């Protein structure tokens, strides 16, 4: 019991095994003993001598050193100890040399003669063999181990098995803790060293040597690009080529792999290209080979290529027998001499996070002289994972640094080309800047059509001068001029979202601040930020919206997942400000610079209508709550965002001539995007971008005004009454768009011409009569055939009274604008023609009944009578804001009626209910 208590409290496995052997020898009067521990997988288990030939007088240190000096490995079922382990039975031999299981080689090596032998298996609580204890010869002169010896031995080993298992678990936990600490320290070192690959690999190899106690360590790094040749191959590679599936990774090879299998491995090793080889020897010396393809250790290189190609682990315990004899090449003599020192190799692939091989690590020779164990392999696997992540991160960091350098060079080039030239800047500096009144900048009805490109820049400068921003923030005048020209230069020549649009948005903001008296709610710094944001809010616009960028998976959509184009506009704004000689904020303090840049960013992002709908609800809530104080940061941000949207859609409140032209430019830009969606994406675009549905645009304009513009301007004008002109202009334009939408419903079109609203009454009366053609025929009434002319008889009895086809000139006042409400065929729509015929027929019947004789018997009407008849009816064209014919033209048309016709009675037909759509002669 004292012995059991002694071993049960011992957790050091070496000490425990030594105590067990000493105590067993005392209990059984044995001369010496050995203790073997079981190792290996269930299908390949073996015994390793933990302590060998220990006597009662053998010291612990002596026994441990003796066991480390020579490893004795016995497979299960081999020898006396192996048989006891396999059969789980006691083996008691009285004459060792007569038993075939006994191996006399050990006696021959040690000079000790074994006579008696007793082996007892040690089992855990589950009944599995965890070791074998063996005692040899008796010291009391007995010729055999008695049953009493066996009983004491077995009972004692039962408790010893529990102690051994506890000690093994404790040892495993200590090893696991130590390994975790090493890996944690490795990870800490790896992820703090990101900017230098050589330093990182040095740390990795140092940690590897400390962790696995090896003499040499080498790291091969793969070239993922495979040099220039690989780059050319990828360029010439056809799209759609099948990608070869990755082979299974991390599959262990046995310790007895034949080198012929490696050398004869069928793989295109040309695709395996190592960029660098790092090698460490003797703990401190680290060499770097930039071209490892020509390193002297060709076979080691071949092994590394094999591991890189297959993703498998090679653990070679006996390198000399594995390498074999040299190939007889004189050049390989040096290689053979150095490789003779290699005893064992552990070669493992290094993987990144995507399970792709990025390198190979080789460990050569353990300090103990023993092969690498399965435990070493397991530890090195975990180690290799951290190595892979560290190397991959460092490579990505180096690549990012190169890309940043390339980007810097590209930005320098772009900055040179995107920045205004010195000549343009000097010319603008020396130009005289006209007054605000010259450009009508205070008005919400500002029009830029008559301004030259130089005038647009001067007008922009004038707004900055008028707001006193140049003096207030010490902006160098030369820098301001260059910045304005650079901003103008960075707008693409798209149809609508161009520099002119930016100028109009900035002018609307300027008018809001001055005429709309919004400057009383803003600080000077906020006014500066708002004007800059307006001028830069659509920089580098491509004529396509955010949805198109997402659909086409453009680089911009990859960079910015929300408000794609708006983020790009802000980035372009920052790029221009960071260009040499363009930073108009250079005199600001750090705090003011941070504030104004935040204003610019929030204002530009607010031009995304998706952001507008979010801020609109917050703004409406503040207004409904009677908010009058807009000075807090959150409220000011909402107010600035609402003002930016109001300025961005400000063209909807311009005079009708401007609004109509702007709407056509927007429509053309949308149609271009729709065409791209059809061609590139093979998708049907939405209605507002479908060129085939262009006649629906008036209706969609009305919807846009009702959804966004009117609610926005209404609440702004109610909150800030000085912005009322924007609301009134929008209402006026809505009436025009509604009128055009009704024309479209009638079958007319609106977008074919530049001028739509020109009523017929406004055409001059001196227009030649040939511009209007009438064909006058009789209805199917009772007529005197003898009074018909041959020409009219030939025309038939059933014909319409009037078929009008208007062919106006191409400009106002004789040779002016074509009639805008007609189709290109210059004919009325089917619906209109049917209503013409029905109305005319009813009119003619009423006149025939009142005259009592019919049109066929009437005399030829006079010009005055025709004019009177016309004046009593509301024309179709006057009801639809189109041109009505003048009396002189109708008189000319009436001349087509034969003079011998009888004049109809002057009695007027009963008035008919008026229709909004059409009235006719």
Automatic annotation (TrEMBL):
The entry sums up its family as follows: Belongs to the cyclic nucleotide phosphodiesterase family.
Q: Which organism is it from?
A: Bemisia tabaci
Which parts of this chain are annotated as the region Disordered? 839-921
Q: What's one Pfam family here?
A: GAF
Superkingdom of the source? Eukaryota
Residue stretches making up the PDEase domain: 421-744
Put simply, this protein is called Phosphodiesterase
Q: Which residues bind AMP?
A: 497-501, 538, 648, 701
Instruction: Please provide the record's keywords in A-Z order.
Output: cGMP, Hydrolase, Metal-binding
Q: Where is the composition biased (Low complexity)?
A: 842-861, 871-885
Cofactor(s) for this UniProt protein: a divalent metal cation
- GO biological process terms, semicolon-separated: signal transduction
Could you name the active-site residues? 497
What Enzyme Commission number(s) does the record list for this chain?
Answer: 3.1.4.-
**PANTHER family registered for this protein in UniProt:** CYCLIC NUCLEOTIDE PHOSPHODIESTERASE (PTHR11347)
Can you tell me which residues bind Zn(2+) 1? 501, 537-538, 648
Instruction: Provide the binding site for Zn(2+) 2.
Output: 538
Cofactor note as given: Binds 2 divalent metal cations per subunit. Site 1 may preferentially bind zinc ions, while site 2 has a preference for magnesium and/or manganese ions.
């Amino acid at each position: 019991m004292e012995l059991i208590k002694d071993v049960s409290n011992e957790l050091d496995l070496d000490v425990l095994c030594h105590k067990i052997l000493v105590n067993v020898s005392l209990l059984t009067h044995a001369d010496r003993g050995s203790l073997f521990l079981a190792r290996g997988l269930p299908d390949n288990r073996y015994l390793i001598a933990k302590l060998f030939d220990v006597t009662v007088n053998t010291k612990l240190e002596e026994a441990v050193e003796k066991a480390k000096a020579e490893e004795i490995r016995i497979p299960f079922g081999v020898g006396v100890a192996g048989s006891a382990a396999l059969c789980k039975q006691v083996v008691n031999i009285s004459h060792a040399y007569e038993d075939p299981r006994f191996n006399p080689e050990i006696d021959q090596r040690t000079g000790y003669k074994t006579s008696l032998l007793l082996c007892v298996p040690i089992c855990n609580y589950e009944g599995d063999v965890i070791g074998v204890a063996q005692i040899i010869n008796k010291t009391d002169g007995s010729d055999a181990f008695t049953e009493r010896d066996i009983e004491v031995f077995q009972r004692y080993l039962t408790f010893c098995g529990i102690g051994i298992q506890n000690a093994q678990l404790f040892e495993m936990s200590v090893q696991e803790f130590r390994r975790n600490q090493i890996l944690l320290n490795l990870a800490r070192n790896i992820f703090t060293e990101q900017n230098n690959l050589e330093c990182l690999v040095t740390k990795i190899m140092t940690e590897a040597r400390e962790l696995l106690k090896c003499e040499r360590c080498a790291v091969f790094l793969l070239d993922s690009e495979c040099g220039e040749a690989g780059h050319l191959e990828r360029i010439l590679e056809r799209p759609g080529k099948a990608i070869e599936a990755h082979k299974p990774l991390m599959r262990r090879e046995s310790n007895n792999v034949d080198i012929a299998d490696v050398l004869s491995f069928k793989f295109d090793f040309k695709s395996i290209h190592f960029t660098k080889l790092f090698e460490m020897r003797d703990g401190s010396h680290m060499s770097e080979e930039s071209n490892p393809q020509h390193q002297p250790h060709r076979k080691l290189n071949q092994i590394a290529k094999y591991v890189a190609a297959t993703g498998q682990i090679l653990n070679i315990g006996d390198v000399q027998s594995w390498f074999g004899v040299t190939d007889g090449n004189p050049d390989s003599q040096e290689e053979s001499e150095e490789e003779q020192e290699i005893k064992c190799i552990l070669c493992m692939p290094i993987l990144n996070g995507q399970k792709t091989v990025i390198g190979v690590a080789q460990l050569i020779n353990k300090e103990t002289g023993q092969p690498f164990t399965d435990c070493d392999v397991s530890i090195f696997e975990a180690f290799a994972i951290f190595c892979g992540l560290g190397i991959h991160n460092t490579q990505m960091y180096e690549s990012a640094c190169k890309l940043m350098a390339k980007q810097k060079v590209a930005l320098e080039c772009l900055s040179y080309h995107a920045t205004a030239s010195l000549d343009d800047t000097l010319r603008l500096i020396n130009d005289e800047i006209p007054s605000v009144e010259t450009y009508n900048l205070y008005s919400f009805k500002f029009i830029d059509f008559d301004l030259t490109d130089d005038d647009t820049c001067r007008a922009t400068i004038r707004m900055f001068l008028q707001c006193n921003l140049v003096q207030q923030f010490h902006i160098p005048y030369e820098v301001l001029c260059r910045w304005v020209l650079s901003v103008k230069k960075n707008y693409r020549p798209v149809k609508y979202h161009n520099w002119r649009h930016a100028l109009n948005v900035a002018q609307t903001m300027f008018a809001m601040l001055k005429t709309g008296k919004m400057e009383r709610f803003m600080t000077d710094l906020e006014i500066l930020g708002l004007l800059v944001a307006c001028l830069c809010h659509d920089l580098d616009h491509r004529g396509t919206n955010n949805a198109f960028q997402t659909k086409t998976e453009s680089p911009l959509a990859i960079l910015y997942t929300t408000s794609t184009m708006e983020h790009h506009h802000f980035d372009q704004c920052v790029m221009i400000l960071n260009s040499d000689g363009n930073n108009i904020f250079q005199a600001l303090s750090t705090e003011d610079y941070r504030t104004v840049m935040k204003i610019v960013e929030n204002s530009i992002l607010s031009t995304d209508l998706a952001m507008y709908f979010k801020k609109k609800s917050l703004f409406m809530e503040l207004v409904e709550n009677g908010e009058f104080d807009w000075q807090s940061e959150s409220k000011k941000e909402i107010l600035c965002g609402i003002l930016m949207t109001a300025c961005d859609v400000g063209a909807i409140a311009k005079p009708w001539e401007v609004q109509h032209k702007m709407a056509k430019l927007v429509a053309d830009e949308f149609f271009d995007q729709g065409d791209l969606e059809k061609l590139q994406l093979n998708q049907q675009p939405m209605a507002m971008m479908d060129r085939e549905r262009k006649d629906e645009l008036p209706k969609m304009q009305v919807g846009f005004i009702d959804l966004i513009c009117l609610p926005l301007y209404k609440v702004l004008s109610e909150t800030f009454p000085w912005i009322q002109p924007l609301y009134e202009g929008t209402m006026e334009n809505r009436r025009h768009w509604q009128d055009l939408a009704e024309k479209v419903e009638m079958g007319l079109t609106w977008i074919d011409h530049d001028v739509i609203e020109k009523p017929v009454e406004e055409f001059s009366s001196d227009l030649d009569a040939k511009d209007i053609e009438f064909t006058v025929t009789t209805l199917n009434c009772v007529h005197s055939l003898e009074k018909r002319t041959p020409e009219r008889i030939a025309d038939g009895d059933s014909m319409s009274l009037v078929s009008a086809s208007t062919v106006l000139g191409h400009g106002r006042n004789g040779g002016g604008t074509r009639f805008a409400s007609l189709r290109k065929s210059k004919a009325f729509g089917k619906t209109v023609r049917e209503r013409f015929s029905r109305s005319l027929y009813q009119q003619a019947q009423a006149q025939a009944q009142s005259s009592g004789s019919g049109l066929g018997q009437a005399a030829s009407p006079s010009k005055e009578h025709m004019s009177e008849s016309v004046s009593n009816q509301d024309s179709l064209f006057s009801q639809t804001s189109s041109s009505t014919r003048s009396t002189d033209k109708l008189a000319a048309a009436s001349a087509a009626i034969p003079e011998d016709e009888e004049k109809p009675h002057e009695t007027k037909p009963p008035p008919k209910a008026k229709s909004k759509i059409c009235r006719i002669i």
